[in-house]
Design a protein that fits this description.
By secondary structure, the chain is of the alpha/beta class. It is built from ten helices and eleven strands.
Length: 257
């Protein structure tokens, strides 16, 4: 079974222990946005099957936080972010080995606990004082998109909480700790029957208007073998086989502006 993905907040400590090569081969460390959890887990397994002896270690969390840590020199071989701004932080910190490339897009989605007990039918319902909704912190890509969507939709009520990443928002809704939450479309797909996705012209229109591109790039490395593996992993992410994985998970093609 795949090793448990490491939360981004613990990046510095665990990787200090496992960032080097093991006796059985290379460890490739991939820093990825939390919304890529299922797809990158599948791609990591594919990569390991194609590269015997290579262990792909996924570090999942807020794109902004991971990019900042990469820029600060934290261990890692590949960075995949949920927006261009986060990737730019790593690029400005001279952490990237190549120019980043966009590979898929995602849209915001409005979800509720199963059965929608609060009767949330539109973004406007988030202004109801009896409705507690949650979003990502605005420093994370999902939070930045949520802020723009809510502002454009004229929602003035403040969220009940701002979570560190999109999976934390999803967890609050799944556990019934919030009446609604703004997550990515792919998170709603991954949650399945554990949530109800609210659909309608307003949320659909805003989601389309604020679709966001994901970016990937290998990180600077002083290990030639691991640098080659990182480049190969990025190639896999951009492949037609990976596109099928992303499409099944609810991602879209690269959004053009």
């Amino acid at each position: 079974m795949r090793k448990a993905a490491l939360p981004g907040l613990l990046l510095l400590l665990p990787l200090a222990a496992c960032g080097g090569d093991g006796d059985d081969g290379q460890t490739l460390t991939v820093l990825a946005a939390a919304s890529l959890t299922e797809t990158f887990t599948e791609l990591a397994e594919t990569f390991e099957d194609e590269h015997p002896g290579v262990d792909v270690q996924l570090v999942l969390g807020s794109s902004t936080m991971l990019a900042e840590q990469a820029a600060d020199g934290a261990p890692g071989d590949v960075l995949a972010t949920a927006d261009e701004m986060s990737m730019t932080l790593a690029e400005d910190g001279n952490a990237l080995a190549e120019v980043p490339d966009s590979f898929v897009s995602n849209r915001i989605a409005l979800i509720t606990p199963p059965g929608n007990p609060a009767g949330v039918e539109s973004l406007a319902d988030l202004d109801d004082p009896d409705v507690d909704y949650v979003v990502c912190a605005d420093t994370a890509p999902c939070g930045a998109v949520a802020v723009a969507v809510l502002e454009d939709a004229g929602v003035s009520a403040s969220p009940a909480s701002e979570e560190v990443d999109v999976r934390a928002v999803l967890a609050r809704v799944v556990q019934g700790e919030a009446d609604a939450g703004l997550v990515y479309r792919t998170d709603a797909v991954a949650a399945g029957d554990d949530v109800t996705e609210v659909s309608g012209s307003d949320i659909d229109d805003y989601a389309a208007a604020y679709a966001t591109n994901y970016f990937v790039a290998p990180l600077v490395s002083d290990d030639a073998q691991r640098a080659d593996l990182a480049a190969e992993f990025v190639t896999l992410v951009r492949s037609n086989a990976a596109l099928e994985v992303f499409t099944d998970a609810g991602f879209g093609g690269v959004a053009r502006t």
